[in-house]
What we know:
The chain has helices at 4-17, 22-29, 33-40, 48-58, 79-88, 292-300, and strands at 100-102, 108-110, 120-122, 136-137, 140-142, 155-157, 160-162, 175-177, 180-182, 195-197, 200-202, 215-217, 220-222, 231-232, 235-237, 240-251, 254-256, 259-271, 274-276, 283-286, 288-290, 308-310. By secondary structure, it is of the alpha/beta class. The protein folds into three domains: 4-68, 434 Repressor (Amino-terminal Domain); 81-113, no CATH class; 116-310, Pectate Lyase C-like (3 Solenoid), CATH 2.160.20. The strands form three sheets. Strands 3, 5, 7, 9, 11, 13, 14, 16, 18, 20, 21 and 22 form a twelve-stranded parallel β-sheet that branches. It has an eight-stranded parallel β-sheet with strand order 4-6-8-10-12-15-17-19. The protein has a two-stranded antiparallel ribbon with strand order 1-2. The longest helix is centred in the first third of the chain and has 14 residues, at 4-17. The chain is globular. 33% of the residues are buried.
Amino acid sequence: MLTTSMIGNKIAEARKKINISQAQLAQHLFISSQAVGKWERGESMPDIITFNRLAEILGVDLNYFSESIQYEAIEMAPVESLVKQSAELPSGKQNLPAGLTAGRHGKAVKKLRWDMSRGNWVDADFSGLKNLHDKFSSSNMQRCKFIGSDLSGLLLKSNNVDSCDFSGSDISSSHIQSSNLAKNIFKDCSQKETEFSGSYIYGCDFSGSDFTGMVIKSGGFEKNTIANAVWNRTSFIDTQIADIVFAGTLEDCYFENCAFTRVTFQNATITNTFFKNKNLKGVRFIDCQADRMTYEFLKNGRADLTGITLLTP
C-alpha cells in the first residue's frame, strides 16, 4: 500500500515531468497552491474525484495512483430483471409505512428502490431509467449509458462521471455537487433549473440542451460543446469558463466573478444579461448584437466591444 509520502512523490514527479508549478496545478484544480504543497509533502491526500482530475492534467493513467484508490464495487442484478420486478409490484392505495407498497395479496412488501451510491459502474446500460428518486453519491461511472432517462430532481454528490451518454435525458431540477464530469454526452437534454456547484465540467457535448434557469457556481466549465443550446435565465457564478463558444440568443443571463479564458460569443444576440466582472479581456465578440444595458455592463468590464452592434429599441 502506498503511503501519503509516496503518493506525494508521485504527484510531484508527474507535475515536474510536464513542467508546471504547484501554483499552476492548483489553478487547474481550483484549489490553493498550499493544498498541492501538502500533498507533495505527504501531509494530506486528494479525494477520489481529485485523483481523476489529477490524472487528466498530469497526463497519466488513473492506475498511476491505483494502489491508493479503492472503489467500493457493488454487485448489481441485470437492469432487465430489476425493471421486471418493479413492473410486477401493484401500485396499491393503502396507507403503508415509507418504503413499503402493497403486494399481490394485499400484504406489505418492500418497495424496489434504486441505490447507485458508492458504486464503481463501468460500461453499464441504464437507458430509459425512470423514477430514480434516491440520492446518488460517491460513485465512479465510466462509459455508462443513460439515454432517454428521467434523472430529474436528483441530488448527486462527489461523483466521477466520465465518457457517459445522457442523450435525450431529463436532468432538470437536480443538484450536482462536488463532482467531476468529463467527456460526457448531454445532447438534447433538459437541465432546466439544475444547479452545479463545486463541480468541474470538461469536454462534454451539450448540443441542443435546454439550460433555462440553470446555475453553475464555484467550479469549472471548459472545452464543452454547446451548439444550439437554449440560454434563458442561466447563471455562472465564481466559475472558470475556458475554451467555450456561445452562440444564439442569451436572454436574462448572469455572469458574476467568472474567470474567462479564450471565451467567444459568436453570432449571438445578448439581451438583459448581467456581467459583473472586473476584467472581460479574455472574452471575444464576433458578429454579436446586444441591448443597451448589456452593452454598458460589458463596457464597464473593459470588454473589447468592436464585435458588438447595439440593438435598436
